[in-house]
Design goal:
heterodimer; A: about 300 residues; alpha/beta; 6-stranded mixed sheet; about 25% strand; B: about 375 residues; mainly alpha; 4-stranded mixed sheet; about 5% strand
Chain lengths: ~300, ~375
């Protein structure tokens, strides 16, 4: 079966900045694929090159077996795109907007309205697009990308700027789209989003892909510590250190910030039994490594979105 | 992982040997219609655009048409101090003729009358001096009026002299205007202001659509949709032409009201193809402005800088006969100048197809050249 995307050795330079520095990736049909990285990592440029908006300085790309550059009208009905900023026509309502985009693909008003319903905007159908909230605009923008039932969908930071509830709703929608068999490629600078949604994720920084894999596998690959924290005041700092050492638990960065007593360890077992013995389990949290830790490990830098 | 999209449209489904051409044809048609609709709706919902394109030029037409209504007959006001035999002797029909061009009031105070002339309340003071001399005192402030008063009084005096001689006149001057007598200000105001209105609408619509769509990423989105460039450009042209024809209908409707009294001559309908060609020419100006400008504000300013001077130089607001010759030569390259001249010709001077055709050709040529330049400067993205 043809891969949804196969890209090889993409490079793009803007003046002195090497925005994309030799990116190669393959996305299988039906996959939910994420490109993760901080702002300025080159995610958007990579996505634009894949979509066929930009011609790369170097590299070879195929979408669904076809070259996206130069503009390929046979490919366009099979892909759907959503940009970081919503691209709507002036002075149109939500319903008029989706119907207009539908008409470009020969999709009639009925199916366009059904897509509006699907993203939960039927009641806001008469609202002018410039009066919609960020979440509504984002959902409409995604609806416009999906109205013609594309096989391959590109989403550029779809949840940026949304409140947590709106974000979760959008996640549900994106999972549904993927469950229908559509390939979804999304960029994000939220590590949790990539972890929750993506089958595979490429961690990108400074124009390069550092590592690609399933989020859980990436996390497991790095032999990292576990963070344990309990409520502050249950155990004095000095006492805690003595008890942990006595129990043979290797700990690092033990601290009490007045809210929580927290520490990092490679062996959470002994630490937890000490805490249980002391009856100091109130507010207990045990957190394993996250993609943030992966990023830290790969770049040597703290992750900053 | 292997499932095909369940709700994919038949036309969007992958075809093994390439996409069949039939659905593409259907899309193109509906894309043109829906893009036209989008632009029309946006225009109708934009109150400011509606005002500037339709109402504002119409206000000028009504205002200037009303102000200049009686301007074609210069009417002079004079005061006669004491008895002036040569004027008093004009009676009956001749008197009525005289009063069409001269309003004669009577007074006794020469000093007061002279003061009124100085202030401009009167155009001249007339009195009879000794030995049958007729004295006319005028102000040099309005030389045209002063000249016409002198001319009129002089002719009255000559006629009186001639009449007292008892012989038929040896020479008679007979003069009449070449143009139809009905050539009133409304008949140069209508094509002029209509041209200005059409130019404003077309230049702004082309420039702002291009820049606005580029800025809002709509252009980029359209590039990733199977919409042809022909559908995008064609719909914009169609909507702008429709707007221009609406302007034409409204202008002619108002100007031909009895109050304004525009009289259309034979082939006046030629104004329709003229306006269509001119709209395309103006849109090419807007396209160029939109290709250069990066923001809507800049496009707005640039369009204004082009349209307003072009309107003045093209005789939209007043005749350009008194312009320096180099300025008049420059105005020949402006499409509005040709629209105004030709529209005037077909609307009120009995011009026909052969007057309009060369202009249409020129306007389309102008559009082709500017579109070619815009093509070179065109950017999809900021």
């Amino acid at each position: 079966m043809t891969a949804a995307i196969s890209a090889d050795g993409i490079r793009q330079r803007y003046g002195d900045v090497q925005a994309v520095d030799g990116v190669s990736l393959t996305v299988e049909a039906g996959e939910f694929y994420g490109i993760l990285g901080p702002n300025g990592a080159g995610k958007t440029t990579t996505l634009e090159i894949l979509e066929g908006i930009r011609k790369p300085d170097e590299g070879r790309i195929e979408l669904l077996g076809l070259a996206p550059w130069p503009r390929n009208p046979r490919l366009l009905p099979r892909i759907g795109v959503q940009f970081q900023a919503s691209a709507f026509f002036n002075k149109l309502t939500a319903r008029e907007t989706i119907r207009t985009f539908g008409s470009f693909y020969g999709v009639g008003p009925k199916r366009a309205d059904a897509m509006l319903e699907r993203v939960g905007l039927t009641e806001s159908g008469g609202v002018m697009t410039d009066k919609m909230s960020g979440g509504q605009a984002q959902r409409l923008s995604i609806a416009c990308a999906l109205v013609h039932g594309p096989e391959l969908v590109f989403l550029d930071e779809p949840t940026t700027g949304l409140d947590p509830q709106a974000r979760r709703n959008l996640w549900d929608l994106l999972r549904d789209i993927n469950a229908e068999g559509r390939t979804v490629v999304l960029t994000t600078h939220y590590l949790d989003e990539a972890e929750v949604l993506c089958d595979r994720v490429s961690v990108m920084d400074r124009g390069r892909i550092l590592r690609t894999g399933a989020p859980a596998a990436l996390v497991r690959e790095i032999d990292d510590t576990v963070r344990v924290s309990v409520e502050s005041g249950l155990l004095a700092l000095g006492t805690a250190r003595e008890l942990f050492t006595a129990a043979g638990a290797e700990i690092s960065s033990l601290e009490d910030d007045g809210v929580s007593l927290s520490l990092s360890t490679r062996l959470p077992g002994p630490v937890l039994s000490v805490l249980a013995e002391q009856g100091a389990l109130r507010g207990l949290e045990v957190r394993g490594a996250t993609l943030e830790d992966v990023f830290l490990q790969l770049t040597g830098r703290e992750y900053r979105a | 992982m292997s499932a095909e999209p369940t709700t994919a449209a038949p036309e969007a489904a992958p075809a093994p040997g390439g996409t069949p051409p039939a659905p593409v044809e259907r899309e193109r048609v509906s894309a043109f219609a829906s893009l036209s609709r989008v632009m029309l709706v946006a225009f109708v919902r934009d109150r400011a655009a509606l005002f500037f394109v339709l109402l504002f030029p119409l206000m000028f037409l009504v205002l200037l048409g009303t102000l200049l209504k009686g301007a074609s007959s210069p009417h002079a006001k004079v005061e006669q101090v004491g008895a002036v035999r040569v004027l008093d002797s004009v009676q009956g029909e001749a008197r009525a003729g005289l009063e069409q061009v001269l309003t004669i009031s009577r007074g006794d105070d020469e000093a007061a009358a002279l003061e009124k002339v100085r202030k401009g309340d009167l155009d001249a003071m007339i009195k009879e001096g000794p030995d049958g001399r007729v004295v006319v005192r005028y102000s040099a402030a309005d030389q045209v009026r002063a000249g016409s008063v002198q001319g009129i009084v002089n002719s009255v005096v000559q006629q009186a002299n001639q009449a007292t001689s008892g012989k038929p006149p040896a020479f008679v001057l007979e003069s009449s205007q070449v143009e139809d007598e009905s050539l009133k200000p409304i008949q140069f105001l209508t094509p002029g202001l209509l041209g200005w209105a059409v130019a404003t609408g077309a230049v702004f619509s082309a420039a702002l659509t291009l820049v606005g769509w580029r800025q809002k990423k709509v252009l980029r989105r359209l590039r990733l949709a199977p919409v042809s460039a022909g559908a995008i450009i064609g719909s914009r042209v169609a909507v702008s032409v429709l707007t221009a024809l609406a302007q034409t209908a409204i202008f002619l409707g108002v100007a031909t009201l009895p109050f304004f009294g525009l009289k259309l001559t034979g082939d006046w309908w030629l104004v329709v193809p003229l306006v269509v060609c001119a709209t395309i020419a103006f849109m090419s100006i807007g396209l160029l402005a939109g290709s250069i400008a990066r923001t809507e504000e800049a496009a707005n300013g640039l369009a204004q800088i082009i349209v307003l001077p072009m309107s003045f130089l093209s005789g939209s607001f007043f005749p350009t006969d008194d312009m320096p010759s180099w300025l008049r030569a420059f105005s020949e390259v402006l499409p509005l100048k040709h629209l105004v001249t030709s529209a005037q010709s077909v609307l009120s001077r009995g011009g026909g197809v052969m007057d309009a055709l060369p202009t249409m050709g020129g306007l389309l040529l102008f559009a082709a050249v500017l579109t070619g330049i815009s093509w070179k400067l065109f950017r999809w993205e900021d």
